[in-house]
Amino acid sequence: MNASTLAGALVGVSLTAMFTGIASGGTNDIRVLVTSVMDMRSTSDSMPRCQVQLKFSGDAVSDALGIREIRITAAVDDTGRDLRASPDRMRLGSRFSGGPARQLAQMAELANPSRNAHAIKTLEGEADLLFPTAENSGLVIAKDFMAKPGEPLGDPALKKANVTITYLGKDGSESRSDDVAGEIPVQVPPRRRPSAGPSLRFSIDDPDRRLVEMTFMDNYGRQVWAGQSGINGTIRSYTFQDDLPTNVRLFVYLATPDAIKTIPFKIENIALP
Asked: Rounded distance, CA 96 to CA 159, Å?
């Protein structure tokens, strides 16, 4: 097969759950495993990539909200090639990821391995797991967030994290302050299916990327599911499947320093497909 045929070709996907790394330092009951490897090698620099899925498991993981970020500090294949991706690619491949209790997983982005490589000799890095609580200022509960449309939520933890959240209204029916309205382009309200519930809109200002997630809870502590969509870079809309329950509460999760636990890991001899 010539080089032009190989360019951009998918080599394969391998499930390699046997390659296990134990988190060194920190807690001893968090395990880091490689559960899959996706390797796309080519002679072109357009789309070559290698992705490794890391799974974090153990009793300590059960209390984690999710994975904030994975940073790869060392990655070398068995030919000696450095597999650390560029900072921009690592940022794109590292986003907040939640999961079921006692198990979290996220893809780590690597550079293109050598065509002669058969394994990733060393994969080393650290992951930031999120454990937000009201005590570490990582959880803000707003009980009456819809009371004053157009006014930012005044919780001290939001101000300390430099996060501004403003409830704008429900389905465009609520008034907005002049300052907020001036930042929002005039739009035709989107049509919703008759079976869909209301939509709530928020303005978000988060220059330090501390805001992790916003969810809604009823009085019994059950999550009220809503689909999220972005109108532009600072506006979020949450559409609910059913009518809002009485006294719905807004839960805001923040990546404050005390809510982040950094887990180092080192995994060796990961087979490439």
From this structure: 22
The model's pTM: 0.74
Classify residue 56 by burial, with Cβ atoms within 10 Å: 0-12, 13-18, 19+: buried
Domains of the chain: 3-131+260-271 (2.60.40), 139-254 (no CATH)
The DSSP code for 127 is E
> What are the tokens at 119?
């394994």
| Average pLDDT of every residue of the chain | 78
Contact 56, 129 (CB under 8 A): yes
Place of tokens 């330092």: 25
Strands of the sheet containing 226-230, edge to edge, are: 164-170, 199-205, 235-240, 226-230
| Interval 25-55: pLDDT, tens | 334 678 888 988 988 876 665 555 789 999 8
Closest by Cα among 137, 108, 115, 109 to 3 = 115
The answer on pLDDT for 162 being more than 60 is yes
Paired tokens of 10: 């998918």
Dmax (CA) of the chain: 67
* Cα angle for residues 61, 55, 26 (degrees, 5° grid): 50
Give the count of beta carbons closer than 10 Å to the beta carbon of residue 138: 24
d(CA 89, CA 92): 5
pLDDT at 248: 93
Identify the band that residue 61 occupies on the pLDDT scale cut at 50, 70 and 90. Answer: confident
Cα separation of 151 and 148, whole Å?
Answer: 6
Q: How many helices (H) and strands (E) does the chain have?
A: 4, 15
pLDDT the model gives residue 40: 80
